[in-house]
Design goal:
The structure holds two protein chains of two kinds. Chain A is an alpha+beta fold. Chain A has helices spanning about 1-15, 25-30, 95-105, 140-165, 170-175, 185-195; strands at about 20, 35, 45-50, 55, 55-70, 75-85, 85-90, 110-120, 130-140. The longest helix of chain A is centred in the last third of the chain and has 24 residues, at about 140-165. The termini of chain B are far apart. Classes of the chains: A alpha+beta, B alpha+beta.
């Protein structure tokens, strides 16, 4: 009798939500490798960041510059969110009704905070595209944007440091998958992003 | 194999109650069980004893039935007994509790220097009444398991002997984080006192030591006293219960001694800085059950899982969500005052919106979501079961010195 209850407690306790990584658009754009952790249909999918960390979810803050409604029967929204290093391509479809409604309501341009899942696509012409499937998007102020730039810069620098020193499986995989990328470019990218914040 | 020793023990048990049994007959029975049926000697001895007891219609283990060296089992340390074993132990009765049923003669806790265990003496066992504070040898008792906790059953085949010894027994207090269901001793401080949720409850609250905290409860019983919040106690032989994977201490059985010291309690205090990445359904303005001590959240139809429809509900604010620092996501729960401060929406405002806006309570949820989702905050509070119960939540402000140091870090050596 007591066993199932105890097991349940453990299961609840052991559930871990995937953290939302902080990554600049300039780095996310470089992703070329996506993998599944486990064989199960519901196993999480990760995009491997070139700075050596897997990412199932990201958190970003930038300026929503454009949004567009698309599709006839399956309506979905696309948007472009710009940070100091580049552009995130975000989308929300009928599988994310709440996110779609949020995105539909926002007037561009606006600072937005986006929580979403990164996805890697290869277009017919062979080019890669990373989009972010939005879980939620809210209008925020400039201060939140600036805080995010600090946060993303700090996390990026942490990853670059870990990559130089580390031997974690993700770091090794990243060195394999992105042999031509020198992680120090992300350090430079972080510097340039930070430098754009007006004090 | 020689059965005379065991046969002698058995016959002596019966001769005390006036039944002389032929030793050869007992030996024959034992031989049959052991040689022909491969029964363990101890088990055979018990089985023969019970068979004879039944034959003469006498309850075993009655007064004066003690004698001999027991049923052949070696005396065991209490901490080592396992469920479904037949054991012989020696220990001190450290607590007696009121029997829960007429079929139980006595129940309580017996302990040795290795630990304590609950015991139950069946009325049918006719075991001698044991006195709190005295040492006893309990032979051939059965270890049972109830709700994952071992206890000792004293039945008609068990022999209870009072030992002359009067050894002092000082249990060692365990760190709270190492407690497991059963009997436990702790040295802890009363860090919180909670409202009683039951009329039979004398006191409940939270005990803490350097390693963690645990809920405690004392039920109303003659002679029980409340603990003083902020004081440190040595608590010996409390009952550690488990419910839904969480432990709590029942102090009714415990010996409690107050002391003057203090403990720096590790209350699971945690501070997390991150962004709010999700606000769960059930956040915003909610209705609570007005029944005294219930306070459960009601469904949309004002339905309490326990007290059914409650039209005279009480409004409350709360936010359940996830706070994400980029490495780990923390489940957070914000109470009313924290929600009011963070969102700028007071309970009165929220009630006004809920009652007059066409979207009702949903509108409160949406406004709160738009006010805080995706924002950077610092939350501090107590972490229980992987959920941070937030008692303070503040928005992060831009810190230019952090900006400068990051610029230096990113600009250096590139």
């Amino acid at each position: 009798m007591s066993m199932p209850a105890r097991d349940m407690g453990r299961k609840e306790g052991s559930f871990e939500r995937e953290p939302a990584r902080r990554v600049f658009a300039g780095e996310l754009r470089e992703c070329r490798y996506q993998f599944k952790d486990g064989e199960d249909e519901k196993s999480p999918t990760y995009v491997l960041l070139p700075s050596g960390e897997r990412s199932n979810r990201i958190f970003l803050v930038g300026t929503l510059t454009e949004k567009q409604r698309q599709g006839e029967q399956n309506i979905f929204y696309r948007g472009r969110v710009v940070d100091p290093t580049g552009t995130f391509f975000v989308m929300a479809g009928s599988y994310q009704p709440e996110a779609m409604q949020q995105l539909a309501k926002i007037e561009t341009p606006a600072f937005v905070a986006v929580i979403g899942k990164p996805n890697l696509y290869q277009k017919p012409d062979g080019a890669y595209l990373v989009t972010v499937r939005v879980e939620s998007i809210t209008v925020v102020d400039r201060e939140t944007r600036d805080l995010w730039v600090l946060d993303a810069a700090a996390r990026t620098l942490d990853r670059v440091d870990a990559m130089a020193a580390g031997t974690s499986p993700d770091v090794i995989k990243a060195k394999e998958q992105y042999p031509t990328i020198d992680p120090s470019v992300f350090k430079k990218m972080a510097y340039e992003a930070l430098a754009q914040i007006k004090i | 194999m020689d059965f005379s020793e065991a046969a002698d023990r058995i016959s002596r048990k019966f001769s005390k109650s006036g039944h002389e049994i032929d030793q050869k007959k007992i030996e024959g029975k034992l031989r049959r069980l052991i040689d022909e049926f491969g029964v363990q000697p101890a088990e055979a001895e018990r089985s023969v004893t019970n068979e004879l007891a039944k034959e003469f219609n006498i309850p075993m283990g009655g007064p004066g039935s003690s004698g001999g060296k027991g049923s052949g089992t070696e005396s065991k340390k209490i901490a080592e007994v396992l469920p479904e074993e037949w054991v012989t132990i020696e220990g001190k009765v450290v607590a007696l509790s009121a029997p829960a049923s007429p079929s139980i003669a006595q129940s309580g806790i017996i302990a040795d220097d290795s630990g304590g265990i609950r015991f139950v003496a069946w009325a049918k066992s006719n075991a001698p009444k044991m006195a709190e504070g005295s040492w006893y040898r309990i032979e051939s008792a059965v270890v049972d398991e109830f709700k994952g906790v071992a206890n000792i059953k004293i039945h008609s085949g068990t022999t209870v002997t009072e030992l002359g010894t009067d050894g002092a027994l000082i249990p060692t207090a365990a760190p709270i984080k190492d407690l497991h269901p059963g009997i436990g001793s702790v040295r802890a401080k009363v860090v919180q006192e909670w409202d009683a949720t039951h009329e039979r409850m004398l006191q409940s609250g939270l005990l803490g030591d350097e390693t963690g905290t645990i809920k405690f409860v004392i039920w109303k019983e003659p002679g029980k006293e409340q603990l003083v919040p902020g004081s440190v106690y040595n608590i010996f032989y409390a009952q550690v219960d488990e419910f839904n994977g969480r432990l709590s201490l029942n102090l009714n059985s415990a010996t409690i001694m107050q002391e003057d010291g203090d403990i720096a309690v590790n209350g699971g205090e945690a501070t997390v800085r991150g962004s709010i990445v999700h606000i769960a359904p059930g956040s915003g303005i909610i209705k609570r059950c007005p029944v005294e001590g219930c306070n459960r959240a009601l469904s949309r139809q004002n339905y309490c899982p326990v007290h059914e429809i409650q039209p005279k509900f009480i409004y409350d604010l709360r936010i359940k969500g996830w706070l994400d620092d980029g490495e780990k996501t923390h489940s957070i729960l914000l109470q009313r005052d924290v929600v009011e401060n963070l969102t700028g929406i007071s309970l009165a405002d929220a009630q006004e919106i809920a009652e007059n806006n066409p979207l009702g309570m949903d509108e409160v949820f949406l406004r709160m979501r738009d006010a805080i989702l995706g924002r950077y905050v610092t939350c501090s509070g107590r972490e229980i079961d992987n959920r941070l119960l937030v008692n303070k939540c503040e928005r992060l402000v831009f810190d230019s010195s952090e900006h400068t140091s990051l610029l230096n870090r990113a600009g250096g050596a590139s």
